[in-house]
Amino acid sequence: MDKNVLVTVTGLLFTGSGEDEKDYIDVITPGQYYRRDDRHYLIYDEMLEGCDTPIHNLIIIAPEKISIRKNGVVATEMVFRSRQTTNTYYSTPFGNLDLSVTTRRIDVTVKEEQIEADIRYRLTINGEQKNDCFVKLLVQPQAENSGFKLC
Prior knowledge:
CATH architecture: Beta Barrel
Radius of gyration: 16 Å
Helix content: under 10%
Number of domains: 1
Low-confidence stretches: none
Distance between the termini: 21 Å
Shape: globular
CATH topology: Lipocalin
Strand order of the largest sheet: 6-5-4-3-2-1-10-9-8-7
Order of helices and strands: EEEEEEEEEE
CATH superfamily: Calycin beta-barrel core domain
Number of strands: 10
Structural class: mainly beta
Mean pLDDT: 88
CATH class: Mainly Beta
């Protein structure tokens, strides 16, 4: 796969039982891809609504886990290992959140020109709130005429 890629991250966070109690994630952005040994690395920037500075993201897809690192106005490293719980902090301008991530399932499909990852997990925030979540990641070569360019 080319070094310049298009990264699509979609997801859903269930915050309750009603239809209005869902938060959607939908990010489509250019990024950089490289592979070292049996690990796939994705680097991309993400803009949050109301923020002027980007969040720098690094996703590492390894045979046994997926890790997502964010640095900027928010910072965290979430590690997903199938049927395991990991703990981390999510730093925000308003303070830190204590996160516990229980990964239910990870599915990764690697093809010559595409990587797909599906993560199903339960999120506990500050020891209280439990949410069922999923994140889907799609990585594919960036089309030359897509209009997406990295600065």
